[in-house]
């Protein structure tokens, strides 16, 4: 944003702070606080609607080193309903969205830049979506575990299962979602701030729906635990496997977090660290998904419940799609990407 | 006052800007599709003739299902190939959409009408079988002629006009048939699984059928209005051209 223009208009910056009588410097730019100004070539920016080609906004006296993010803030001023997160600014109506970090003078535009705008629709922050979609299963499972009224026959209200594997399953399931909530708050560093609003309905239906479906059977009075063949040893093995994969998944999340300095959106190739759980990076691009699959396989075997198997399968399919996409973008972005790696399953997928 | 250093900037588009050209079916695929569509047209004609003959022979339209049961099952199930055609790419339709449409037909044919003997004598069965028969004869001949690049306007018009009546007719027949099946499904516990069992799973086909019936409420209008929009696009063009002249 042109600090002079902002100051003159007396408006606040998008982040809420207002410009006081400071010399025209901002953290992103390093302009000397000289009284005598150098001759700076200002840009003119016009923003057209990508579909109708209507002229929506004209900005003059834009700094050459203004970023797309700053231009979005300026556009937001003239169109308050389009907050920056829902703006897609591109050079071509059908082209890719420009990044917030892109600098105006480094784009292939003349001193009068023409951009096209597309509305991405109402947006919601990733953190909000994650917190909502993960809290649901945590609470819902516990409702079934404690057998609150109107789920099972009234004589079972508030009773507890006589099978100890059911208690174990509740602990594992709850631990898993508490872990996810804590990771959302303290570990993950998101590339995008927001996603389309409708995603929260889609995602919550998926997580909450499956959680209810699984919890109904595991905590059912007529639940059948693993038979005498698959005895205590078996259950403990599945528990150990589950825990192993949970720690693995957390290790990967932390390793990925450490690739990225706080507040940045840099992308780097992940490599194995001192933590043995990360050595799987040698063979796999997205080991967080590998470990996640492992956790749910363990949980499926522990509970011997078909709906859990379905949930594991659907999750596996979705994670494979994501892993293949991520693997492809790694290959595209980094010429020296390790060739031995597979997207999600070593050598296989 | 020259512009900024455009020379040093990267192009805004990546190397994969070149649009992916859709591969139309090759000569072999076209030949196969023509044969497929001709066979399907013939098959549904057989069903149509079978219905007509049975009606004339009996003098009533009750219980005509039995006279065309086998070709109906054969040719309706054969339509599963169409999902494959989309998956392989020789037909430019969505796999998911085609899959959904075909499987809903197959579901009604096998999981409802075949499985619940008591509904086979219902008139609602004749209602949807007739709707399907007329629709499919027009649809498959439409595809056949399109592939041969000699589509008579009449067929195109019929395909995008008859649905106004055939869609609601078919949907009514389907819903009434499912509804008629409900009491028998509940009584016999058909396709249902109860607790306790070692898979810790249960499925109530009766409830499932009720949910299927409710799903028609959001789905049917979407499909119907999609066809109306298609009609405007496909038939509207011809009217425009004639106006220009």
UniProtKB/TrEMBL annotation, chain A:
One of its GO terms (biological process) is very long-chain fatty acid biosynthetic process. Residues 194-349 form the 3-oxo-5-alpha-steroid 4-dehydrogenase C-terminal domain. The keyword Repeat does not apply. One of its GO terms (cellular component) is endoplasmic reticulum membrane. InterPro entries: 3-oxo-5_a-steroid_4-DH_C, SRD5A/TECR, TECR-like_N, Ubiquitin-like_domsf. Pathway: Lipid metabolism; fatty acid biosynthesis; Lipid metabolism; sphingolipid metabolism; Sphingolipid metabolism. The chain crosses the membrane at residues 124-144, 203-220, 232-256, 277-299, 305-323. Residues 43-119 form the TECR-like N-terminal domain. It is a multi-pass membrane protein. Pfam families: Steroid_dh, TECR_N. Its main location: endoplasmic reticulum. Keywords: Acetylation, Endoplasmic reticulum, Fatty acid biosynthesis, Fatty acid metabolism, Lipid biosynthesis, Lipid metabolism, Membrane, NADP, Oxidoreductase, Phosphoprotein, Transmembrane, Transmembrane helix. Its EC number is 1.3.1.93. One of its GO terms (molecular function) is very-long-chain enoyl-CoA reductase activity. It catalyses: octadecanoyl-CoA + NADP(+) = (2E)-octadecenoyl-CoA + NADPH + H(+); (2E,7Z,10Z,13Z,16Z,19Z)-docosahexaenoyl-CoA + NADPH + H(+) = (7Z,10Z,13Z,16Z,19Z)-docosapentaenoyl-CoA + NADP(+); a very-long-chain 2,3-saturated fatty acyl-CoA + NADP(+) = a very-long-chain (2E)-enoyl-CoA + NADPH + H(+); (2E,7Z,10Z,13Z,16Z)-docosapentaenoyl-CoA + NADPH + H(+) = (7Z,10Z,13Z,16Z)-docosatetraenoyl-CoA + NADP(+). It is found in: Endoplasmic reticulum membrane. PANTHER family: 3-OXO-5-ALPHA-STEROID 4-DEHYDROGENASE (PTHR10556), VERY-LONG-CHAIN ENOYL-COA REDUCTASE (PTHR10556:SF31). Belongs to the steroid 5-alpha reductase family. Involved in both the production of very long-chain fatty acids for sphingolipid synthesis and the degradation of the sphingosine moiety in sphingolipids through the sphingosine 1-phosphate metabolic pathway. Catalyzes the last of the four reactions of the long-chain fatty acids elongation cycle. This endoplasmic reticulum-bound enzymatic process, allows the addition of 2 carbons to the chain of long- and very long-chain fatty acids/VLCFAs per cycle. This is Very-long-chain enoyl-CoA reductase.
From TrEMBL, chain B:
The keyword Transmembrane helix applies. It catalyses: a very-long-chain (3R)-3-hydroxyacyl-CoA = a very-long-chain (2E)-enoyl-CoA + H2O; (3R)-hydroxyhexadecanoyl-CoA = (2E)-hexadecenoyl-CoA + H2O. Pathway: Lipid metabolism; fatty acid biosynthesis. Keywords: Endoplasmic reticulum, Fatty acid biosynthesis, Fatty acid metabolism, Lipid biosynthesis, Lipid metabolism, Lyase, Membrane, Transmembrane, Transmembrane helix. InterPro entries: Tyr_Pase-like_PTPLA. Residues 1-12 have a biased composition (Low complexity). It is a multi-pass membrane protein. Belongs to the very long-chain fatty acids dehydratase HACD family. This is Very-long-chain (3R)-3-hydroxyacyl-CoA dehydratase. It comes from Neogobius melanostomus.
